[in-house]
Design a protein that fits this description.
With about 475 residues, this protein is α/β, with parallel strands linked by helices. The protein has helices at about 35-55, 80-90, 95-110, 125-140, 170, 175, 220-230, 245-260, 290-295, 300-310, 320-340, 350-360, 370-380, 385-400, 405-420, 435-445, 450-465, and strands spanning about 1-5, 10-15, 20-25, 60-65, 120, 145, 150, 190-195, 215, 235-240, 265-270, 275, 280, 315, 425-430, 465-470, 475-480. Helix content is about 45%, strand content about 15%. α11 packs antiparallel against α16. The longest helix is centred in the N-terminal third of the chain and has 19 residues, at about 35-55. The relative contact order is 0.11. The chain binds adenosine monophosphate (AMP) and zinc ion.
Length: about 475
């Protein structure tokens, strides 16, 4: 596979420390609120990447943290603690908030067919790891104590900026984010490893440490959790593009200073989903969540389809119209898959050829829009339906659009409607489930006010020599 590496600014051949094995780490959510669909864009694309690597034959160990402590409202360790903010907002404990929003996050993931990583570790469960790393950093002079906190000393590094070539002043935290400077810091890029004294007297979660009772900074959790479960050599680190600086930059600084050798060579950053007004937000305007999509009648997988249509390294703009288009395209695709007859033998040569092409095309920097095209190409292939279904099922191991399951359900629904004669919508015809599925799909499209799709299906049936007549409570069809 070839993958763009934000650390080198180049598309490179994907390599791993141990051949055939990928140690993969993903920055998980801060569980103080629901995830918005922008956050979930990152997790969808990372899920496709993981599934592609497995599809390509790698054994993947994917680790993700859950941030339940230490993340302040500015990524540069100033402002209010996000978890405390959530707890105050809802008049609950930090622990309750963490549990509630962790569960909500995985519910959303399930609805979007995002696989749960092999290891999911809340940050509060690895305090000993952070203390071990910070102690060594203090002993070796990479970290210092000031004002009761422990800071990483960025001036000890030959190279601090990894992901950008900006001049230091451009990225100086105070300037960049318009937040107050922490006067304890010796250098502006220093960051907190451990808080003891801070302005958060009501900080709910605290632990004993060699530097006093306190809590870890945000950045140290990802280094500690990754080293615990991925080992000293990480192959691939993922996150949204906003994580590159300062979060990932700081992860590299502390990990490599601790380990004394390079830590993670490949960095995968997903660009943002924005709304037309700009940055997606959890506080301003309409808070776009998976539940909101469902309330408005969308299948969450239509949103996944929308994400797959564009490249992860391009900013994506969300509008309801764009989502409508993706939803209509997804319905149309399911109807076409449902109309395939699951009979006959799979042509292994054709199957292998399509699989190989998919592997090459999608392996070019996770080209998911090519993967979408590949599904349509498979539908048009000069081969039997059984082979098409096998190919589409194979591609769906990476895409995870439930194509075969949903198509089978459509077919089943059509067959039942005919047999029972008692459903909402009764189809009477000549006993062909494929035609029943299309007639039902036309009805579903009409119900969803997608008249263009309904007309397209009627025309397709006409070309097959089928005439459909709407009757009371259903439809009747016959071959002309
Ligand atoms: P958080 O819960 O804020 O820690 O963010 C969870 C993940 O979502 C991180 O990997 C962020 O980089 C990513 N993220 C935040 N905003 C967006 C967005 N608008 N589009 C895509 N990813 C985002
Ligand atoms: Zn992280």
């Amino acid at each position: 596979m070839y993958l763009y590496n934000s650390a080198t600014h180049k598309k490179e051949e994907f390599k791993t420390h141990t051949p055939g094995r990928v140690e993969m780490y993903t920055c998980g959510p801060t569980v103080y609120h629901f995830a918005h669909i922008g956050n979930l864009r990152s997790y969808i694309m990372e899920d496709v990447l993981e599934k592609y690597l497995r599809f390509a034959g790698y054994d993947v160990n994917r680790v993700m943290n859950i941030t339940d402590v230490g993340h302040l409202s500015s990524d540069a360790d100033t402002g209010e603690d996000k978890m405390l903010k959530g707890a105050k907002r809802e008049n609950k404990t930090v622990m309750d908030i963490a549990k509630f929003y962790t569960d909500a996050f995985f519910d959303d993931c399930r609805k979007l067919n995002i696989k749960t990583p092999d290891v999911v570790q809340p940050a509060t469960g690895c305090i000993d790891e952070y203390i071990k790393i910070i102690s060594k950093l203090v002993d070796t002079g990479y970290a210092y104590l000031a004002g009761g906190n422990v800071y990483f000393d960025s001036s000890k590094l030959e190279r601090y900026y990894i992901f950008n070539d900006h001049d230091e002043d451009d990225l100086a935290v105070g300037v960049r984010e318009g937040v107050e400077e922490d006067s304890n810091k010796r250098n502006k890029n220093d960051f907190v490893l451990w808080f003891t004294k801070s302005k958060f007297e009501d900080q709910a979660l605290k632990w004993d440490s060699p530097w006093g009772v306190g809590y870890p900074g945000w950045h140290i959790e990802c280094s500690g959790i990754s080293m615990k479960y991925n080992g000293e050599y990480l192959d691939l680190h993922c996150g949204g593009v906003d994580n590159a600086f300062p979060h990932h930059t700081n992860e590299i600084a502390q990990s490599e200073s601790y380990l004394g050798h390079p830590w993670c060579p490949q960095w995968f950053h997903v660009h943002h989903l924005n709304d037309p007004a700009g940055k997606m937000s959890k506080s301003k305007g309409e808070f776009l969540t998976v539940s909101l999509l469902e309330e408005k009648g969308y299948d969450p997988l239509a949103y996944r389809w929308f994400c797959l249509q564009s490249h992860y390294r391009k900013t994506l703009v969300f509008t309801w119209e764009n989502l409508d288009n993706a939803a209509a395209a997804y319905t149309k695709l399911l109807n076409r898959v449902a109309a395939l007859k699951p009979e006959g033998d799979v042509d292994q040569a054709v199957f292998g050829e399509y699989r190989e092409k998919f592997l090459q095309q999608v392996g070019n920097d996770l080209n998911t829009s090519m993967a979408v095209t590949a599904v349509f190409d498979a539908l048009k292939a000069k081969t039997n339906d059984a082979t098409k279904l096998a190919v589409i099922g194979e591609f769906d191991k990476v895409l995870s659009m439930s194509l075969l399951e949903k198509a089978a359900a459509l077919r089943e629904k059509a067959a039942q409607a005919v047999q029972s004669g008692g459903g909402d919508y009764v189809i009477t015809g000549e006993g062909d489930p494929e035609i029943d599925a299309k007639v039902l799909a036309r009805y579903e499209a009409k119900k969803a006010k997608n008249f263009a799709e309904a007309d397209r299906i009627r025309d397709e049936l006409k070309r097959q020599g089928i005439e459909v007549t709407d009757v009371k409570g259903g439809a009747a069809w016959k071959r002309l």
